[in-house]
Amino acid sequence: MNALNEVFEKFFLERTSNNTRLRDCTEFEFPPRERARYKDIPFFCKSLVANHEGKIYMLYSDFRDIYLQLDGTRNGNLVMNDNFEFCYVAKGHYRRVIDGTEIKLNEGDFYFSNMTSFYYDILETTDSHVIFFNMSRSFANDLLLHLSSSPYIKTHIHAVLSGNSSARFIFAERKTHNFPSEISRVLSLLFTASCNGLHVGSERIIQGMLIWLFDTIEKEYSFKSVAITNEKYLRSYAEIDRYLRDNIMTVTRQALSEKFHFNIHYFNVLLKRMSGYSFKQYLQKIRIETAIKLLSDTDMTIRDISKSIGYENTNYFYQLFIKATGESPSGYRKSHRKNQALLG
């Protein structure tokens, strides 16, 4: 077992044996609260894990919540975030299907993402572990200033941060079967730093390790790239998403069909292809996201919030909100304001 897997299993066992909440979910995504929680953190990680029993877990840096997937190893989402991400296959095999193109990664391989894409993640075997390292835009931009000896990775990060939606994904595969043990040790240090929280000086230390890591990857690995091929679908999906959010209270499938001149069947196929959700599931998702924003930023009553996002039945809204976030709307507002007060 390499250093990274040893460190991860230690953290995982500690967190799953204490009071960490284990949440069930049928699809993995970055939940609204976690997305807000990590938005401005310079460097964090999350892990996708399949244990020996075949159960699939998604864990975030602080291990505050662990998500257990109930319906298999596959998850899909359109990723449009403000973080730069690269991942490493620590154990087993991993497939990412990007805009219809399937890439298989083996243990020890790396993947560097674009910020906007549609993909599915698939863990092929039990006892697998993929770790995703995320950098905020400002952290990645600062790192670019010091990446003098990693031209391939530097060019890719620069293209992604510049907003180039057609920037290619790159994959790094080992040139030989020998795996440099130093890479595992550096990855374990990065993982540990992320899980323990960043302190004064941590960012510079992490940047130093990343500079060494990227330089070593360029020397020891060969690169492949994949370009986004479905920009047409991405544009249509983005327009539909925007319309749904603007008309969240009254939107219907028929209205969407008339607005975008799609027949209803084509619309359903497109939405499922690009998000992994049915119309009902996707509309519910963005309604809950909107409710979270209104609870955080306004003094609207919960009843008024429920009506404003299309739910006349407040009790039904409560049920959906608790299922999505683990808290009641009033409980979420209370904890959010408490956290804001502590932050000053």
Question: Which class of the largest domain in CATH terms?
Answer: Mainly Beta
- Fill in the CATH topology of the largest domain: Jelly Rolls
Q: Could you give the distance between the termini?
A: 44 Å
Return the CATH architecture of the largest domain. Answer: Sandwich
One letter per element, helices H and strands E, the order comes to HEHEEEEEEEEEEHHEHHEHHHHHHH
Q: Superfamily at the CATH H level of the largest domain?
A: Jelly Rolls
Characterize the largest beta sheet: strand count, sense, and whether it forms a barrel. Answer: 9 strands, mixed
Number of β-strand runs: 13
Q: Could you characterize what this model shows?
A:
There is one protein chain. The protein has 344 residues and is an alpha+beta fold. It folds into two domains: 3-226, Jelly Rolls, CATH 2.60.120; 232-343, Arc Repressor Mutant, subunit A (Orthogonal Bundle), CATH 1.10.10. It is 48% helix and 24% strand. The protein contains 13 helices and 13 strands. It has a nine-stranded mixed sheet with strand order 1-4-3-2-11-6-9-12-13. A four-stranded antiparallel sheet has the order 5-10-7-8, with no helix packed on it. A hairpin with a 2-residue loop joins strand 7 (93-98) and strand 8. Helix 5 (181-196) packs antiparallel against helix 6 (202-220) and helix 10 (279-297) crosses helix 13. The chain is globular, with a radius of gyration of 21 Å. It starts with a helix and ends with a helix.
Keywords:
13 helices, four-stranded antiparallel sheet, Jelly Rolls, 344 residues, alpha+beta, Arc Repressor Mutant, subunit A
